[in-house]
């Protein structure tokens, strides 16, 4: 299993970090059989698993539930990052720490949170308490209403400079890695060069230290959602439906079950 020192080593040696999201036990069991470096139990669970229209509906309880399911599937064979949901780290210090504690006790090995300004004290405190923190800047979906929508960030000189300041702020606060989402590829590269901690990109070009995608997107299970940064590596929707149709056909033709499936 990776640890936070391995993240650093990967950056230094120039070998890429692969991260995928996961929200359930069965998928976690399959991911354990792959060479993926780490698993993010993202707040995208609210959309992918629960059908909400954005990530603002994720709660600490929801994230705890998914982290626990993934943790049972992973069985300590992969490094798990649990996403702190909307506003859960912007309450009282005690509530923020309790939320982080609950995700760690559910089985996360680190937490992730969005944004930089106003999060530094919390990040310093939890890292000193033994909780590794992954930062997340750029197109941060929890801030969608402040950003005026889910738009590519850092396109102007001033917003790119702000993102560089945010990245340095998170590194200084103690983040062991930083997700860079939805920025021009040139800025993804600049941020990666600027930081000593690894960057993990999603829609941030090829030059970040690693990449992350939502599992269902890369498996082609979310064909109705196809932003530019997503690549479906298989046509999961077609294979899924084909499997179910094959079952229905066999049932209708009386070809299932056969003797081998009978007691
Ligand atoms: O929740 C999520 O899936 C994420 C990744 C896209 C980085 O935060």
Strand fraction band?
5-15%
Number of helices: 10
Overall morphology: globular
Sheet with most strands: strand arrangement: 1-2-3-4-5-6-7-8
Mean pLDDT: 97
Estimated structural class? alpha/beta
The biggest sheet, with number of strands, parallel, antiparallel or mixed sense and barrel status, is:
8 strands, parallel, barrel
Distance between the termini: 41 Å
Low-confidence segments, given as residue ranges, are none
By CATH, the topology of the largest domain is TIM Barrel
The CATH superfamily of the largest domain bears the name Phosphoenolpyruvate-binding domains
Q: What's the helical proportion of residues?
A: 40-55%
Structural Rg: 20 Å
CATH class of the largest domain: Alpha Beta
Number of domains: 2
Order of helices and strands: HEHEHHEHEHEHEHEEHH
Bound molecule types:
3-methyl-2-oxobutanoic acid
Structure summary, number of beta strands: 8
CATH-scheme architecture of the largest domain: Alpha-Beta Barrel
């Amino acid at each position: 299993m990776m640890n936070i020192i391995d993240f650093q080593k990967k950056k230094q040696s120039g070998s890429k970090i692969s991260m995928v999201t996961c929200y359930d036990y069965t998928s976690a069991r399959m991911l354990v059989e792959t060479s993926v470096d780490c698993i993010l139990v993202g707040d995208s669970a609210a959309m992918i698993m629960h059908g909400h229209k954005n990530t603002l509906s994720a709660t600490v309880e929801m994230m705890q539930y998914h982290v626990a399911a993934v943790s049972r599937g992973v069985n300590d064979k992969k490094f798990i990052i649990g996403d702190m949901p909307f506003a859960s780290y912007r309450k009282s210090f005690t509530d923020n720490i309790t939320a982080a504690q609950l995700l760690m006790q559910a089985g996360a090995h680190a937490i992730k949170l969005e944004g930089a300004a106003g999060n530094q004290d919390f990040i310093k405190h939890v890292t000193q308490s033994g909780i590794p923190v992954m930062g997340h800047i750029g197109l941060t979906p929890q801030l969608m209403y402040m950003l005026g929508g889910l738009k590519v960030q850092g396109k102007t000189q001033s917003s790119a400079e702000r993102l560089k300041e945010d990245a340095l702020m998170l590194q200084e606060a103690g983040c062991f890695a930083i997700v860079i989402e939805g920025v021009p590829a040139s800025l993804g590269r600049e941020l990666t060069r600027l930081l000593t901690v690894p960057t993990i990109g999603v829609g941030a070009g090829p030059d970040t230290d690693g990449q992350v995608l939502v599992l269902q997107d890369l498996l082609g299970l979310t064909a109705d959602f196809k932003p530019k940064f997503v690549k479906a590596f298989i046509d999961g929707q077609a294979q899924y439906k084909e499997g179910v149709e094959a079952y229905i056909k066999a049932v209708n033709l009386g070809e299932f079950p056969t003797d081998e499936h009978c007691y």
